[in-house]
Amino acid sequence: xxxxxxxxxxxxxxxxxxxxxxxxxxxxxxxxxxxxxxxxxxxxxxxxxxxxxxxxxxxxxxxxxxxxxxxxxxxxxxxxxxxxxxxxxxxxxxxxxxxxxxxxxxxxxxxxxxxxxxxxxxxxxxxxxxxxxxxxxxxxxxxxxxxxxxxxxxxxxxxxxxxxxxxxxxxxxxxxxxxxxxxxxxxxxxxxxxxxxxxxxxxxxxxxxxxxxxxxxxxxxxxxxxxxxxxxxxxxxxxxxxxxxxxxxxxxxxxxxxxxxxxxxxxxxxxxxxxxxxxxxxxxxxxxxxxxxxxxxxxxxxxxxxxxxxxxxxxxxxxxxxxxxxxxxxxxxxxxxxxxxxxxxxxxxxxxxxxxxxxxxxxxxxxxxxxxxxxxxxxxxxxxxxxxxxxxxxxxxxxxxxxxxxxxxxx
Length: 411
Ligand SMILES: Cc1cc2nc3c(=O)[nH]c(=O)nc-3n(C[C@H](O)[C@H](O)[C@H](O)COP(=O)(O)OP(=O)(O)OC[C@H]3O[C@@H](n4cnc5c(N)ncnc54)[C@H](O)[C@@H]3O)c2cc1C
Fold this sequence. Notes:
Elements: H1 17-34, H2 38-44, H3 50-57, H4 76-86, H5 92-105, H6 107-112, H7 115-127, E1 132-135, E2 151-155, E3 158-169, E4 176-182, H8 199-202, E5 213-219, E6 225-230, E7 241-252, E8 256-257, H9 263-299, E9 301-302, E10 305-306, H10 311-339, H11 345-370, H12 381-388, H13 398-408
Parallel strand pairs: 1-4
Antiparallel strand pairs: 2-3, 3-7, 4-5, 5-8, 6-7, 9-10
Helix pairs in contact: 1-4, 4-9, 5-9, 9-10, 9-11, 10-11, 11-12, 11-13
The protein binds flavin-adenine dinucleotide.
Flavin-adenine dinucleotide is lined by residues 100, 134-137, 142-144, 167-169, 202, 233, 236, 241, 390, 393-397, 399-400, 403.
């Protein structure tokens, strides 16, 4: 949703005055440089690569990365501030693409990468001069990550990768990819996984689920790497989503990211940041939809009075405001725990589950408040409604979040 007008300040004790300074500068950048193009980009079904470079030049792709790699050296809350402000861009696609760059594809490089990998991939990704994608999902492995079939087989000083990835955000334009592949089919392991869930309890067919996966950093101009298709989607039209075919793609031994055989644990760690970023974006998107609906409910008259004067509508708006605030506090609690060094899998799963449900409920109610106008393509509420639906599926669907919450509660 495009909005350049002032909205209520988001205040919480978790943010310092420095975070608020960052918020003001992020908001100014987003409203000045991105929001004016949102409609045009959604219409075109794409946005230009300079967005990454400008965001990088502002420091927004490395807010919580160390200064030695070109980051801003801030804490996790700094990147949370950006996630909240990004909703003002009016294009969920741009926020998602930038989040893939800074919160999904690159955190494993900082955590597990060698110095050489950090210089080659992380530093230009923070600058925005090299675009990244993250490839986990496959046609037969979405929720069931342990069913990944893409293989990486060692051949002398190289790895040979074969497989197929689907739904890969930034996949058409990326210069490199953080890829999950199977490096060992043999080992049997029913250890408790990184989310406190046994592999066999999620997938009884495959007790070996957690071992034998590794992460790789693959340059997308490597022979054998091919974007097979740009996928057409319900929403997030300006974001590119690729199907990728990988055939005898040879990468050097040092393309391995982190320890061989630990890829499943590493990607589950990555998913926590991805889920919290998604939850934060959903809540701030819901807030903007609410603000728009509230304003419309005061302005739009029917039967001689503002539609918001009807209790059916005012109570609905009251409920929306309450749910948004509850979802926001779940996000803040999980983010606070992360900054304190905890690994709050249950709280992150709750924030993503509830944030997604609230975003979709609010979008639905906002459509209703706008009546027929909501159904017009040049009124931004329909775009927000379409875009919001993704969070309940991508990065771990609602059902998977419930499963994790149940298992980490001892069920
Ligand atoms: C626009 C978009 C962008 C994306 N970007 C990326 C990306 O950049 N990189 C990437 O790797 N992936 C990406 N994804 C993939 C996304 O993460 C997956 O779609 C998601 O994890 C769900 O997997 P699936 O689509 O295979 O659904 P499935 O796993 O087939 O699930 C289908 C349904 O069954 C439910 N289900 C599955 N297992 C269970 C169970 N045990 N109990 C109860 N219910 C269950 C699911 O919750 C879901 O509702 C993207 C997806 C979309 C749509």
